């Protein structure tokens, strides 16, 4: 007979809820879509102090709320167990997303991030933005209230502030 502590029981219940909510596996693409096709990106830093399934679920919920009425998530990329300080090219799922962005048949039009501070730190977003723009991929963020607009000074200021806040949290 297995003995579970209260934290184990909570994680199991939360995990079961998240799994029942119909999350797609990483990289899974759906073809029947009205509106924009989004790739979702999320991340959690630790597996011991955060429940990966529930962290992915609430980040995905935030992303879906952000894109509500504009399209659907058709692909999911989620990194667990790596620091936000690790460059995207060295994170397993983020690197796969970057490769997909550059592919002609990528299957999505935009990327939606579950939470800026989980995905980026310091100036990572600013360094990745030229790739997104060159490939014609929009970036949507809950903190921006939708699509990021590089020409909007408010969005530029927001990204600077979020990058600094995320960096401060790391330190």
Figure out the total of helices: 6
The number of domains is 1
| CATH superfamily (homologous) name | Resolvase, N-terminal catalytic domain
Overall pLDDT: 81
Contiguous low-pLDDT stretches (5 residues minimum) are 1-11, 21-31
SS strand fraction: 15-25%
CATH topology: Rossmann fold
Describe the model.
The chain is α/β, with parallel strands linked by helices and 171 residues long. The chain has a single domain, classed as Rossmann fold (3-Layer(aba) Sandwich). 44% of the residues lie in helices and 17% in strands. The chain contains 6 helices and 5 strands. Strand 4 (138-141) and strand 5 form a beta hairpin. Helix 1 packs parallel to helix 2 (52-67). The longest helix has 18 residues, at 153-170. The termini are far apart. 30% of the residues are buried.
